[in-house]
């Protein structure tokens, strides 16, 4: 800070922060932290925490997180950085292990933080203090500074304790000792700070005076990274092999990467093919570095490929030790192995981690601390090549790197055994048969042998996604009658069957083979889909559907007028889709109405009509339609301009007119059921008003939308969503086991100008991580719920929400989740607002009845809905399937 106070330290999507400003922000956080910690005390700390109370950090990938990290490090409190995308259960497990009672967070994550810890420190960019506060009471460099977690062989995450000495030495090795980067460099920082490599990249960049451009690849996707690199003239990119492959697959413009002089790859095994592919995009003078490190040691070794150097085939070596770090390969008794033979890798360095806190036996087995040189016995196997470089040869304890994260399959085993559906399980790491990567494969034995494999596998995968980070969820799950065991009763891993690809009925025609190839590429499959494979069952969604249509147009010359996503809803299997998309099919193969997508056309129930967002695709509702069941007809309207079907409408009213024309072709008379998402909710509301004006009965569900009048919109709605609702909000939390509120808004209350009252349910969905959406339901001047009503899910999602604990009611067979793990389920927090949609939308039409898709906790529940002036109608809901 003193050397370059006005130099840029950190930039993100919202701000550019100099070193002076960053120090001021960090000092502001430190000031608050000291005030709060004064009253917290250290009584909850584990025995291995000596000194100050540990502090958690729960923040996104932005400059405020960097300031918070600096503040906690300066405070002398041991720091644990949490991943905001991890399930709450996982976060709580880590916090309990460390004994954290205080979390530094921001407004966006404060709700979660308060469920995890009793004490919270809120950060804000405008909170500044004297930067000298950071240096007033410097911590002892020998004390615990950072707690990281790595997979443990017992199935429990294992804490790793690092002091400041290791952080500083690691920064020197990573930057100056290797000549990788330093003052004046601009780092494209894509790694999450909860990932230990992401945290150390942050600390190292600050220590050497570099500028960091933070880019959240998990939130924005990798496609936007080249623009960021070009705009900020980034000189260095730090990434994992998995991210690197995705980056190359996007086909970035090499001109946008011209400023790069170093690309560093770390986190898992990299292959020569990875380097060859990215080299074609990089400047000729750019160096590519393959690095090897661990939470216990920091950076260990580096293999640098200078410009023009030949790229080795297969797995890249990790090179030689950096700085004063060296590697040896030994047998289990500690004696060296001859060059070329495989053995355990041992790291020798001036500083290594303090150990595994609370695990003295594991610490003694892995660490040896001496005055001049300490050692760490890794769990990695390796060998020394003739060149002197070290090559990794696997893991001693079966652990492996998946997507850049160290994963021990035993931890996934523990999660599987926690599920009631699983009697036995084992997870192994296996090389993908056709791709240069490692994947997890789970072998399970079901508790109920009468259930089908497909049902058990689907339920198991959904449950694991609520319990584990996404990289720990097995890619393949195989049901067995029993696990193979050796004569000693131990699981015989060598006898486990290989992953068998599903049988595809019938040979493919030449045309079907071409379509199958495009499906495989878009869905990232490791096989060619068969004739009876379903696009959506293979993991397809609206984004994949859009990408497929683009590929069909570019690669196979399909006319854009034919390649429409709605075809997938009508013809979801490969054979059906190939026949419909085939140019030889003529006009019969074309989608008759590209503005209304026919999701499900069978069934005797009243249809549900969805209205997509401004640029949304109707096929995006396919998963929801299937969730409602095969007997529930569903249709979806999409914008007139989507997929090049026409000119945009100039008003909501015009779009509503178009949609109603098509709606009446399908269903001439009511009752009607409408559901609108985002901007489509405004269109659906207008459609509902018109139908009511014509004397029709209408039910309306509004999903993730907002009042169109800017004066009544929440501040920063798109960024903060539910938490920033600034209307007059009344919060009512019903305890578990009690009936829902008898009156959701005052019965008979007449709203101003005859407009509708509003009721808001928080809802959670998961798409590329956890995304919190707001479900806003409009009701006409008052709802009443019967005393037996117990509101449940206000969203449609095939599977539980991350962080929940699933329980089965033995009396009814229904599945429920614990509160807070699934907002809107069981007994949710209910928020009612006293403001209303603007008169130009609601006017005095009396509004329309709305139902927020409750799922009762009993086999059958009556829900009464009335407007305070007309007789109440009763709707019967079936617990066997969520229905509107």
Could you characterize what this model shows?
This protein is α/β, with parallel strands linked by helices. Among the domains are: 1-139, Rossmann fold (3-Layer(aba) Sandwich); 408-495, GMP Synthetase, Chain A, domain 3; 501-592, ACP-like (Non-ribosomal Peptide Synthetase Peptidyl Carrier Protein, Chain A, Orthogonal Bundle), CATH 1.10.1200; 595-803 and 821-878, no CATH class. It contains 22 helices and 39 strands. The protein has a 9-stranded mixed sheet, sandwiched between helices. It has a 6-stranded mixed sheet with strand order 26-28-27-29-30-37. Strands 16, 17, 18, 19 and 20 form a 5-stranded antiparallel sheet that branches. A hairpin with a 6-residue loop joins strand 23 and strand 24 (438-446). Helix 1 (19-40) packs across helix 2 (63-75), helix 5 (164-177) crosses helix 6 and helix 14 packs across helix 15. The model is unreliable at 587-592 and 717-884 (pLDDT under 50).
